[in-house]
Amino acid sequence: MGRKEWLTEVQCLSIVDHPNLVKLLGYCSVDHERGVQLLLVYEFMPNRSLDDHLFNRGLPTLPWKTRLEIILGAAEGLAYLHEVMEPKVIYRDFKSSNVLLDENFNAKLSDFGMAREGPADDRTHVTTAVVGTYGYAAPEYVETGHLTIQSDIWTFGVVLYEILTGRRAVERSRPPKEQKLLDWVKDFPADSKKFIMIMDPRLRNQYSFASARMVVKLAESCLHKNSKERPAMSQVVLTLKQAIELSGEAAPSVTGGNAESSGTKKVGQRRK
């Protein structure tokens, strides 16, 4: 992290206040013989990140409803930045590794070093150098450098597909046609029964068909080529709440223990 990103994060986290944004407890700049050390101290997040739980095969599989509750929390954090903060904030680096998890698997967004104020007055975008993680950035941002609130919506759609599939946005170890997640899922749209082919096999079919289809449709809308057609984060929040209601599952946990419910195996009981 450079000094510019460090200052941005300090300034942003010093003024935000939301349960789904990580708390900044302290910061300092220390002169060191090898240069200036820029330090940040966050609240402790014992369950690491969404990235760890989706892609680290050494950890228990995240149950479907837990995935939805985590991404709902992340959506509520983004909705706060987009629709409550003044001036509005474009997060610009939404990805699964920046969604941290507390002791109860509640989501908190972290790493605000690339955040930017949204466009002022009647402007539609902020023009900036293209930064971010490969595989996540919205196409119009990559092509023009025009950054908007809708750029965050696109990256949210990418992470929705990661939750659905258990695959990273880019995986070079897969066959050529499957290396880029968004290219692969195009063949399995929500309006086709084939969409179940993309579902994470580690879920072992323990999810609601209707709930999963709703999330696929949401991901497709977030990834609309026309940025103006993408939903606002407040709409995303409402849709995810509906998907959770449709899931028809008792809230499970990844902390251990198996229980039987309606003939379906569950993994523990998630604390609130």
UniProtKB/TrEMBL annotation:
UniProtKB keywords: ATP-binding, Kinase, Membrane, Nucleotide-binding, Phosphoprotein, Receptor, Serine/threonine-protein kinase, Transferase, Transmembrane, Transmembrane helix
InterPro entries according to UniProt: Kinase-like_dom_sf (IPR011009), Plant_Ser_Thr_Prot_Kinase (IPR050823), Prot_kinase_dom (IPR000719), Ser/Thr_kinase_AS (IPR008271)
Compositionally biased spans, kind Polar residues: 255-264
A GO molecular function held by the record: protein serine/threonine kinase activity
Protein kinase domain sequence ranges: 1-244
Subcellular location: Membrane
Region (Disordered): 248-272
Record's bilayer topology term: Single-pass membrane protein
Stated name of the protein: Protein kinase domain-containing protein
Organism: Eucalyptus grandis
